[in-house]
């Protein structure tokens, strides 16, 4: 979930050359030059002359955005992508309770093109995982039934649809937890920065002290991720799942040493702090297959007070381990993104992780059409995830191909409860009527 650093966490509610942990200090870590490790769908280096935006309508591909419209073979050929543009996972808070609504079918299908990749909004793996109201789940039969027509609407447009698996961990509140329990985390360290508060049914409140997961809790949590993955793929019909290991939520709370102060095999060293993430990945792979599993990671974010003292060393180690699994992809957020805020600049880079990870690499965070095309052309990423700009332009591919102006996104409706800012962003065709 990408979130704004406002009172509710997700935004205003409307009127939201080292290989283990015994490394040189992170300050000495050099950013190597990377090379593309992608697996294009064909050996041709030139994209096709035309692109199918849907309904068999073909548009010529201008040279300046051509890298974004080069086909790509994902998951060793299981999914043939027509282009390198990914719709990023964006929380929208339009579920009723935890049930996806019929409007979600329109929302996602509006943004689907043949051979495109869409990643769903963050979706709770259990009732305990909830940290935000009006977010959907994957653990009740009625949730799964509600997801089915949403998934089918995207598939009817010829797109590939992955579901993001989410547990908020300490980024919750007893008012949102079953039985009023304390939220669970890697440790008892709470979110303390005053800029972060949590919205509950009775209004905004400060985050509370979480309880540290026991080993029995950890085994249960790993199983819940696996079951949610099975529910997503085998019941709801998603093509795959993305493990949410980013943005200060549960998995990130184990990875980042500002949160994790454990002294057992899940804390302390880099290997130990990454253990929970890797156990989740292994369990989800066992549930649905590695070629249906991706993971999202944010090495540099400090959102929700989750930061790491050695982000390069920690996440290079994690990339090295993820190389062993044959995942569909690794999805990383550029360091210039902090929650839902884009910084003017950052001294950090994803280059070391891109160099180490040998599979498909999705890069995300504040890309424009030209910078996204340059990222693919240079090998910075195999695929580029677009969020807010794509959200505001359901015909995003068409506008890039025609060099058409882009709608401006409206932050005030990112997390509101109505259809405004959800399914009513106009297409070019609608604007021309």
UniProtKB/TrEMBL annotation:
GO molecular function, one term: FMN binding
Domain of life: Eukaryota
Name of this chain's protein: NADH:flavin oxidoreductase/NADH oxidase N-terminal domain-containing protein
Cofactor(s) in the UniProt record: FMN
Keywords from the UniProt entry: Flavoprotein, FMN, Oxidoreductase
PANTHER family: NADH OXIDOREDUCTASE-RELATED, NADPH DEHYDROGENASE 2-RELATED
Cellular component annotations (GO), alphabetically ordered: cytosol
Pfam families in the cross-refs: Oxidored_FMN
Compositional bias segments (type: Low complexity): 32-47
Family to which this protein belongs: Belongs to the NADH:flavin oxidoreductase/NADH oxidase family.
